[in-house]
Amino acid sequence: MKPTSSTFLLPALSIALSYATLVVGAAHAQTADPAAEVRRVLASPIYQSATAALDKEHGRIVEDGIKPTEIPAPPFGEKARAEEFAKMLKASGLSDVQIDPEGNVLGLRKGTRSDGKVVVVSAHLDTVFPAGTDVKVKRQGTKLYAPGIGDDTMSLSVLLGFVRAMKTAGISTCDDILFVGTVGEEGPGDLRGVRYLFTKGSYKDKIKSFFSVESGDVNRVTHGGVGSKRYRITFSGPGGHSFGAFGTVNPMFAQAQAAVEFARIQVPAKPKTTYSIGLIGGGTSVNSIPVSSWMEIDMRSESVDELKRVEDRMLKIVQEAADGENFARSTKNAKITVEAKLIGDRPAGNTDMKADIVQIAKAAIEAGGYTPDLNWSSTDSNMPMNLGIPALTIGRGGIGRNGRTHSLDEWEDVEKGPMVKAMATSLSIVLSATGME
Ligand SMILES: [Zn+2]
User: Fold this and answer.
1) Is residue 13 pLDDT above 70, yes or no?
2) 236 and 205: one domain?
3) What is the pLDDT of residue 20?
4) Distance 213 CA to ligand 1 centre (A)
5) Residues 185, 56 share a domain
6) How far does residue 379's CA lie from ligand 1's centre (Å)?
7) 124 Cα to the center of ligand 1, angstroms
8) Are 240 and 200 members of one domain?
9) Residue 129 has what pLDDT?
10) Residue 177 CA, ligand 1 centroid: distance in Å
């Protein structure tokens, strides 16, 4: 379509020019030298007084992390934790705190030169763990064990620590900062919290950049959002007595065959592409041929094309498995049918490596004495990245200080030195990106 593209060249150029004019006029939309901005923040006595506040408050930040960890927050069940976090956010000194209709907790900290837009600094409220999971925190020295403690509950407390430290140090920022606890970051939540924030909420179209503070090591920066597709596959059949109706098609056999074939799909290491079966179920009793059988599948890729290839292959495999079972056993009463229901669809996207916030994060991490590790993942940042809004998922913990994420023996080491240093680095990213004065 070469001739068409040249026709569009002129209008596109004029749009680019008017955008450039806009950028120059807007306070802090573009920082001339992101690394110099980081150096300025780090050298400033008020930043140092904020890090001193984080140091002094370390014990409280840990306790404030334990509190919400012990309030269960399964997907779609974040309400009690959200209410507690809203209370804590208010107590930390933010006046304008609200819970939006989707369940996100929002707290605004006004800037001095507000341009009507906000920089979001968020952490997620939800965990992967179902209702009924024991979420009591167990301590072993400086190590805390509890499902969800690192991913991402301690980050909520770190946000509170940031708000208080900024207040104690008397920090003003150019930009308005919207502190957010999001719902639905994990699995079945399908990013419903950020989806609402960016597409429906009162701050829709008013967010100029986005930070998600996640469990990871402070040197980890997620600048690319891995796309994912999740399916619930259900095989159905006539069912029957395991002895009396022997020879009848069995949906579990079809599903097992599909699982084996699915596991054989070849994927590239780069762009990283993965797949897994995370849940299976079905049947009613051991001596019945089941009426139905289901499994939930997760597929991810850094590449839209690779994701589509695995998805297409999977859909073919489940159909072939049903056909194979119908061929192998009796369909006298009914055939095996298969239904593939899309239960998760996370948009892919990425923040350009040359974007200011990437440069700021890299400079701040290096200044902290760490080596930046830029990576792709699937986080709340996927949504803004997909919309072209600069977004990063950043860390706030010491290197190698958390582990066994998404397992019942998840842990977080809260040893003071490494934790305070990491939080201070994380805070310097936020302050450099919001124009600390
Ligand atoms: Zn997480």
Assistant:
1) no
2) no
3) 36
4) 9
5) yes
6) 7
7) 7
8) no
9) 97
10) 21
CA of 6 to the centre of ligand 1 (A): 44
Rounded to whole angstroms, the Cα distance separating 318 from 297 reads: 11
> pLDDT tens, 198-228?
999 999 999 999 999 997 799 999 999 999 9
Quote the percentage of the chain above a pLDDT of 90: 88
Task: Give the tens place of pLDDT for each residue, 21-76.
Answer: 333 333 444 567 999 999 999 999 999 999 999 999 999 999 999 999 999 999 99
Q: How many angstroms separate the alpha carbon of residue 94 from the centre of ligand 1?
A: 24
Phi, psi of 297 (to 5 degrees): -120, 140
Report CA(79)–ligand 1 centroid distance (Å): 17
Residue 96 in domain: yes
In 156-206, beta strands by DSSP E: 176-182
Q: What is the domain-level CATH number for residue 77?
A: 3.40.630.10
Give me the pLDDT at residue 31, please: 61
Nearest to 229 by CA among 328, 280, 300: 300
Question: Per-residue pLDDT tens for 257-282?
Answer: 999 999 999 999 998 999 999 999 99
Domain boundary among 294, 325, 346: 346
Q: Is the pLDDT of residue 4 over 70?
A: no
Ligand 1 centroid from CA 156, angstroms: 11
Choosing from 346, 365, 399, the residue where a domain stops is: 346
Question: Is 40 a domain residue?
Answer: yes
What is the 19 CA–ligand 1 centroid distance (Å)? Answer: 35
For residue 255, the enclosing domain spans: 227-346
CA distance 236 to 330: 14
- Measure 407 CA to ligand 1 centroid, in angstroms: 12
Distance of CA 65 from the midpoint of ligand 1 (Å): 15
Residue 127: inside a domain: yes
What is Dmax (Cα atoms) for the chain?
Answer: 82
Model confidence pTM above 0.85: no
Examine residue 387 and state whether it is found in any structural domain, yes or no: yes
Residue pLDDT, tens place only, 222-237: 999 999 999 999 999 9
Please give the distance, rounded to the nearest whole angstrom, from the Cα atom of residue 185 to the centre of ligand 1: 7
Total domain count for the chain? 2
Q: What is the 373 CA–ligand 1 centroid distance (Å)? A: 17
